[in-house]
Write a structure and sequence with these properties.
By secondary structure, the protein is α/β, with parallel strands linked by helices. The chain is built from twelve helices and 16 strands. The strands form four sheets. Strands 2, 3, 6, 7, 9, 10, 11, 13 and 14 form a nine-stranded mixed β-sheet that branches. A three-stranded antiparallel β-sheet has the order 8-1-12. A two-stranded antiparallel ribbon has the order 4-5. A hairpin with a 2-residue loop joins β15 and β16.
Length: 545
Amino acid sequence: MNGLLELLTTKLWMIMPEYVHGSRAIWEQNLNGRIALDLQQKKKPYAMQIQDGQAVGVINEYQVTENGKTTSRWWMDEMDAPFVNVMPVDGPITREGGACSYGSMDLRDWMMEAANNEFCQAHIFVINSPGGSAWAINDFKQAIDYAHEHGQKVYAFVDGLCASAAMYLASVCDEVYYMHPKDMFGSIGVMAAFYTEKNGTTNQYTNETYHELYDPESYDKNKWYRDIAENSKNDKKLMDDLKKTGVEFRADIQKSFPAATEKHIHGALFEAQEVTGILCDGQMTLGEVVARAFEVANGSATPIERVAPVKPEDDVPEDDPAPAASAKATTTEASASGEKNNPLNKENMKQYEKIATACGVEELIVNEEGAHFVPSMLDALNQTLEQQASDKAAADEQVQTLQTQLSEAENAKTEAVNAKEQELNDSHEKAMGELKTAHEQEINNMKQQHEEQLNAEKEAKGKVEQELAEVKESLATAEQQLKDREAQIETLKGKPGDQQEGSPANNGTGAESHEATCGMPDYDHNKTPLENARIRKEYMESLQK
């Protein structure tokens, strides 16, 4: 679990993102489902020796000496025959190792233990890795420096993939070889891969609530992490760390591989056959690398010394990249063909005036053996090269500073644009809210007015209907009274003979004569029903008088 814990807690990585994304589901299942990881046993480190002129590897945990004695790998102090220390770097590189390859701390301790043995001739890293922790390179550098102090060379043998942190490891080795032309090199750069969980969030698997509290005076503790958890745009501190580590990474690569150009150091991957002589030194089998390690150790082979390619501006012809190396041969030819055809005569040496100037002389010294340098010229040349290197380093630093300033300016611009966009969004939301509120208020007002108007109309209609009912009732009463009057009139119009015998109702005084009045006013459509009803009511009342 130590390796898995390191994968989940390490911030800076030199690794291919395909590994990070491909492993994410496994990490989440392991943490959230408490699922145990079932892993195969790792490849064990081993030692290799020379027997009958051939490199022989003692795999698993044993080493075999020239007399056939087997010794457990874990008892290095018992080794009593020359050997080469071989260490596998498989899979993602972490310090703890754990579920991945051996950790960089394991390899560091093992390498230093082997270096302490007087029979150790050299060390070989067998690499097939997508990269890993940016911190692991410190362990490798410490172990390699320790081996160099004991006069031991360190080799890298790539059998598959050498990317990112693995490429960094290869760059600090003395020589780098590959097994197959299609093996991959590169992916030089730094990335950050980690999880954040905001305070108060709930885990979707366990339904547990995450809490993260800090003492008030610990306001800088995990600040970069908390800032990013709150808003992914708060990544300036992390980006500064990435830039710093990336600058160191590229500088070490260019120092180890001077032929590397800009296209090689910014994250691209290359097939081994494309970068031979640039990011690696050639193709060999592991046995051949072991044999070479023995040969270099005993002095029968010369170590590789990488040099930067000659640039056109150095005025060195492309068909003669190393004139000093061929000087003796061309001078010998001049003895036969004459001084005129000698490429190193004083006339022809004018083309190397820049070299002479760098040496502090007007022209180079030429004799029949070729061009020669005296110590003072070499000192002057060395000083010139150091000054140029210093100037280049200063220029590179200035370029890096300008790039950093440009990046900061871009970040500031992005932040300003985001802030302005947020401000406009807030203003838009506020205006839309106010408009919505005003619209709802207007609708409510119109609705209330409509209801009031409707109620008033209903009330007026009820009043009219009531008045109409009263008019109808008055009209019915008047019609009944009219019928009663008409009946009385008919009675009064009757003949005396038709009357019943007896005393008249008025005791002989005679009947009063009433003139029948008729003429109900017509309904005037120019007047309101109420006025028409009033007129007819007044008429009926006049009849009763």
